[in-house]
C-alpha cells in the first residue's frame, strides 16, 4: 500500500496514517456488520438453521414492502422540503455582508446544538391540538375545530425537515461559495434573465453541493427513529421502528437482521443514484 | 524476600491495571450488580432499596445498572458462564423469556424470611414479585366531567377523537388488548374480539402512541382526554401539575407482576439473595408506597395508605378482589402474531 521507498514520488501518499481508523472500522463496523449478515441468514430465532427464509418472508410480504416503501418516500419528501427551503438561505448567505452571514450561520447551526429529543418535543408542542399552530388558526377564526397535525405524515415531514435542515444548508453554502460571482454578472450582461442565469449557471455549478446535501439529509431522515416515533406515533410504521419492534419486543433477531440488511441495501441504492447524478453533473458543469 | 526494581514495577503495574480494569480481577471481587429499569424505577431504587440493602449487609458494595428487560436478557445471554448482572428485574413477558432461556435460578424460598408473607400472586418460585404495576383508566378531569367507570366508556360517542392507546410493543398495550378481548368474550388465547373492539374504537382514537411515556405527554398537550394508563406513571404526571386522574375500572385494574430474579451462575449469589430479601421487606415496600414513589406493594404485612389506599385498595383482600392478573405464558405464545396484526390493521 505505502509508497515504494526506493524512488520517492512526491505525488504519491502513504496509507499508513489511515491505518488506526481503518483498524477501528474493521473491528467495530465491518465485523459487527458481517455478524449481522450471518445472523440474517438463519431461518429460526435461535440461529441454528441456515436459510434465506427471513429475506423471503420480507420480500414476499406486501406489508413489509409497504413499510420499506413509505420509509423511502418519507426520505424523499423530507429531502425535497429541505432543498426547496434550504437553497434560498444558502444563496442569501453568499450575497449578504459579513454581519448577516454570522447571523445566518448561527441560525443554521443552532438546531445542531440542541438535542434531537428536545427539538422533537418542541414540535409536539407546536403541532399539538392546543399547540401554537392550532391556537393561532383558531384565534384568527380560520378553523373551528383543531386540525390533526401530530401523528400525521405531514407532521413527521415538517419536523424532520427542521431537524435535518443543517445537513442540507451547510453543503449548499460551501458549494455556492465556490461559484465565481462574476459568472452571474457575465450571464446577465450577455442578456440572460435571472431565472435563466439561475438554471443555466448557478444550479449546475452548485449541483455537487445539492447532491451532498440530499444524500446526507436523506440518510438522516429515513433513520431518524426518535422523531419518527414521537411525531408519527405508534401506528405509522417506518423501518427503524419495525426493526426495533422485531429485535427488542419480539426478540426475533434473525428477522431484524434481515430487515437491517435490506434497509441498508435500499439506502445504498438510493445513495448510489445520488452519486451517479453527481458524476453526471460534473460532466455537465465542465461542459 | 528481595525486591528488585523490575519486580516492584511489575507489581505496581499489575495493581494499577486491576484498578483501571476491574474485569481483570477475580470474578468474586466484582460488586453486586442490579439491573433495574430506567427512569422513576432507578430513582426509587437508588433512594430506598440500595440504602436498605447496604444497612442490612455491612455496607456491601453494589451497583445499579439500569436497562430495559430485553437488554438485560441479551447481556446475560452473551455471557452465560460469567454474567455481568447478578439481579434482574422483569415485566411478566420478558420474565418468562428469561426463565425459558434458563438464565435465572430458582429463588431459595425456604431460606427467605419474607416470601411467605407475599400475597399468593406475588409468590413466584423462579423470582418473587416485590412490586405490582397497575393499569386502569386515566382521564383529564377538566375535560371529562363524569369520571369513567368501565373500559367500555372508551367507546362512548362523546369521546370521538379523544382516546389514546399505545401499540403492543409495551406490556401495557398488550395487557390492555387482552383485557378488552376478555370483556367481549375472548381470552388470553383468543384476542379476536379485542381486535374487533379496536376496529369499533377507531372513530374515537386520537392517537396510538409508540410507548406509554409518549402517551403520558399527550395528556399534557391536550391531544387526548382519556386512555388506559399506568397508575404509577400517572401519579408522577399529576404531581407535576398535569390535570390527570386515575380510576380502576369496574372490570378490575390490570396488575402486572414486576419480578426480581437471581441470575444463573452469578458470582454474588448470596448478596443477590440478600438484595431481593431487602426488596420484599415491609419497611422498603412501605417507603416505596409513599409519595413520591407510589409503587404498589406485594407484602401482605404492608398497611395500605395514601393515594394507593384511596384509589386502588385499602388492604390485601380488596387488592386481590379488584386486581386482574393475566396469563402471560399464553400471551407470549401469540404476542408476535398480534403485534403483526396490530401493525397491519390499526391505521387511523
UniProtKB/TrEMBL annotation, chain B:
Q: Which InterPro entries match?
A: Sperm_putr-bd, TAT_signal
Q: Which key words tag this protein in UniProt?
A: Signal
The GO annotation for biological process reads:
polyamine transport; thiamine transport
Task: Quote a single Gene Ontology cellular component term.
Answer: outer membrane-bounded periplasmic space
Q: Which GO terms describe its molecular function?
A: polyamine binding; thiamine binding; thiamine pyrophosphate binding
List the signal peptide residues: none
Q: Please indicate if the UniProt record lists Signal as a keyword.
A: yes
Record's PANTHER family? ABC TRANSPORTER SUBSTRATE-BINDING PROTEIN, THIAMINE-BINDING PERIPLASMIC PROTEIN-RELATED
Protein known as: Putative spermidine/putrescine transport system substrate-binding protein
Gene source species: Bradyrhizobium stylosanthis
Amino acid at each position: 500500500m505505502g509508497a515504494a521507498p526506493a524512488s520517492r514520488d512526491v505525488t504519491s501518499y502513504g496509507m499508513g496514517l489511515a491505518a488506526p481508523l481503518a483498524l477501528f472500522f474493521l473491528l467495530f463496523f465491518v465485523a459487527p456488520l458481517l455478524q449481522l449478515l450471518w445472523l440474517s441468514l438463519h431461518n429460526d430465532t435461535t440461529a441454528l438453521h441456515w436459510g434465506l427464509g427471513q429475506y423471503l418472508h420480507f420480500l414476499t410480504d406486501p406489508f413489509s414492502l409497504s413499510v420499506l416503501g413509505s420509509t423511502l418516500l418519507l426520505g424523499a419528501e423530507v429531502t425535497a422540503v429541505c432543498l426547496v427551503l434550504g437553497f434560498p438561505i444558502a444563496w442569501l448567505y453568499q450575497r449578504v455582508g459579513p454581519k448577516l452571514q454570522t447571523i445566518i450561520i448561527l441560525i443554521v447551526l443552532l438546531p445542531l446544538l440542541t438535542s434531537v429529543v428536545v427539538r422533537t418535543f418542541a414540535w409536539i408542542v407546536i403541532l399539538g391540538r392546543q399547540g401554537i399552530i392550532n391556537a393561532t388558526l383558531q384565534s384568527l377564526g380560520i378553523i373551528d375545530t383543531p386540525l390533526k397535525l401530530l401523528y400525521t405524515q405531514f407532521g413527521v415531514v415538517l419536523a424532520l425537515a427542521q431537524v435535518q435542515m443543517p445537513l442540507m444548508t451547510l453543503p449548499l453554502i460551501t458549494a455556492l461559495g465556490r461559484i465565481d460571482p462574476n459568472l452571474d454578472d457575465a450571464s446577465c450582461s450577455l442578456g440572460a434573465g435571472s431565472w435563466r442565469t439561475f438554471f443555466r449557471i448557478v444550479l449546475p455549478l452548485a449541483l455537487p453541493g445539492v447532491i451532498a446535501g440530499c444524500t446526507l439529509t436523506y440518510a438522516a431522515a429515513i433513520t431518524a427513529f426518535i422523531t419518527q416515533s414521537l411525531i408519527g406515533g405508534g401506528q405509522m410504521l417506518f423501518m427503524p421502528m419495525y426493526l426495533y419492534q422485531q429485535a427488542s419486543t419480539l426478540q426475533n433477531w434473525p428477522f431484524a437482521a434481515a430487515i437491517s440488511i435490506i434497509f441498508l441495501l435500499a439506502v445504498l441504492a438510493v445513495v448510489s443514484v445520488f452519486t451517479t447524478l453527481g458524476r453526471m453533473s460534473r460532466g455537465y458543469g465542465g461542459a | 524476600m528481595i525486591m528488585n526494581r523490575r519486580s516492584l514495577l511489575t507489581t505496581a503495574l499489575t495493581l494499577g491495571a486491576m484498578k483501571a480494569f476491574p474485569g481483570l480481577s477475580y470474578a468474586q471481587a466484582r460488586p453486586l450488580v442490579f439491573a433495574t429499569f430506567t427512569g422513576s424505577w432507578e430513582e426509587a431504587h437508588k433512594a430506598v432499596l440500595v440504602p436498605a440493602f447496604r444497612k442490612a449487609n455491612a455496607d456491601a458494595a453494589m451497583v445499579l445498572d439500569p436497562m430495559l428487560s430485553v437488554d438485560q436478557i441479551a447481556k446475560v445471554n452473551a455471557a452465560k458462564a460469567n454474567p455481568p448482572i447478578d439481579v434482574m428485574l422483569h415485566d411478566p413477558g420478558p420474565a418468562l423469556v428469561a426463565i425459558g432461556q434458563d438464565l435465572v435460578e430458582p429463588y431459595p424460598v425456604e431460606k427467605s424470611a419474607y416470601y411467605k408473607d407475599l400475597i399468593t400472586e406475588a409468590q413466584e418460585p423462579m423470582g418473587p414479585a416485590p412490586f405490582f404495576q397497575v393499569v386502569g383508566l386515566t382521564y383529564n378531569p377538566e375535560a371529562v366531567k363524569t369520571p369513567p367507570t368501565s373500559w367500555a366508556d372508551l367507546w362512548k360517542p362523546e369521546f370521538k377523537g379523544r382516546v389514546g392507546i399505545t401499540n403492543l410493543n409495551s406490556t401495557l398495550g398488550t395487557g390492555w388488548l387482552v383485557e378488552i378481548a376478555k370483556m367481549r368474550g375472548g381470552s388470553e388465547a383468543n384476542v379476536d374480539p379485542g381486535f374487533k373492539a379496536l376496529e369499533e374504537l377507531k372513530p374515537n382514537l386520537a392517537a396510538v402512541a409508540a410507548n406509554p411515556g409518549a402517551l403520558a405527554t399527550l395528556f399534557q398537550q391536550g391531544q387526548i382526554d382519556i386512555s388506559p394508563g399506568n397508575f404509577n406513571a400517572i401519579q408522577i404526571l399529576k404531581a407535576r401539575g398535569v390535570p390527570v386522574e386515575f380510576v380502576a375500572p369496574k372490570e378490575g385494574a390490570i396488575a402486572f407482576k414486576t419480578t426480581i430474579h437471581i441470575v444463573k451462575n452469578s458470582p454474588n449469589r448470596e448478596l443477590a439473595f440478600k438484595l431481593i430479601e431487602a426488596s420484599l421487606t415491609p419497611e422498603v415496600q412501605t417507603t416505596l408506597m409513599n409519595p413520591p414513589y407510589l409503587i404498589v406493594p406485594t407484602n401482605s404485612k404492608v398497611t395500605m395508605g395514601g393515594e394507593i389506599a384511596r384509589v386502588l385498595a385499602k388492604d390485601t383482600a380488596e387488592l386481590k378482589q379488584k386486581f386482574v392478573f393475566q396469563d402471560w405464558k399464553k400471551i407470549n405464545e401469540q404476542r408476535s402474531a398480534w403485534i403483526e396484526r396490530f401493525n397491519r390493521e390499526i391505521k387511523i
